[in-house]
Amino acid sequence: MLVLLLRIVAVLVLLVCLGFIAYWAVAVIKGDAVMKMVKTKKTPLKVENMDRHHVTFSFTIPIKNVGKQLGTVMDAFVRIYLPFEQYDQAKVTGHLDDYDVPRHDDYWQAYIVEPGKEKRFYITLDIDGKGSSILGDLEDLPEFALDIIYQIVARSDYYYAKTRIVITREEVQNALYEYTTEAGK
Q1: Nearest-CA neighbor of 90 among 82, 100, 99, 79?
Q2: Do residues 42 and 121 lie in contact, with contact meaning Cβ atoms separated by under 8 Å?
Q3: β 71-81/111-113 pair status
Q4: Residue of 65, 43, 185 whose CA lies nearest to 119
Q5: pLDDT at position 161 over 90
C-alpha cells in the first residue's frame, strides 16, 4: 500500500514538473516584449524657448518593441549627469513625456507598444543660468550625459532598462545658433 502511494505521489510530482516545462517551452516559443531605444532616430536638439536667464531644449527618441509580444512601458524618466563640480554656471533639469500625449505634471501614463511598433519619448532640458546672460553661462557648458530610464512589463517579470544619451557642446551651440538665426529674421 505504501509503495502504491509513493508511486502516485511520484507520478503527480512528474506531471507538475512536466507542466512547468511545457509552460516555459510555450513562453520561449511565443517570445516576450523586448524594448529598445532607437538612438539613430534621435532628433537634433532644438530650442523651445529662451529668455535672458533660461533656455529649454528638446528632442525626441523612439522606443521600439523588437520582441514578439505586447509590452507596456509602465514608468519612464530622465536623469541628468552634470554635477556642479564639473559645471556650476547653470542648473540643468530634464523631463520626459510621451510625444503623442504630453503632460505637464511629471506623471507618466503607461502605454502598450505592439510588436514591431514604436512610440516616441519627448525629452526637455531646462537650463537656468546663474549669471547675467544664459548665452554667457552656456559658453563653457561641457558635454554631459543623461540616462533615459524606463520600466517594461510583459510576460516575464518587469524590468528597468536605461539608455545613455550624450549631449555635446556642439549640439547645444548648433541649437542656439538655429534659434537665434530664426529669431533674427
Answers
A1: 82
A2: no
A3: antiparallel
A4: 65
A5: yes
Can you read off the three cell numbers belonging to residue 182? 530664426
What is the arithmetic mean of pLDDT over 40-60? 96
CA dihedral 37, 95, 149, 35 (to 10 degrees): -30
For 26, the grid coordinates are 510555450
Q: Phi and psi for 6 in degrees, rounded to 5? A: -65, -40
**CA 68 to chain CA mean position, Å:** 20
Handedness of CA 174, 147, 153, 116 (dihedral sign): positive
Tell me the per-residue pLDDT of 117-126, one tens digit each, with 9 for 90 and over: 999 999 999 9
pLDDT, average across residues 149-177: 93
| Residue whose C-alpha is closest to residue 125's, from 35, 41, 60 | 60
Full-model pTM: 0.82
> What pLDDT does 99 receive?
93
DSSP reduced 3-state for 97: strand
Which of helix, strand or coil describes residue 39?
Answer: helix
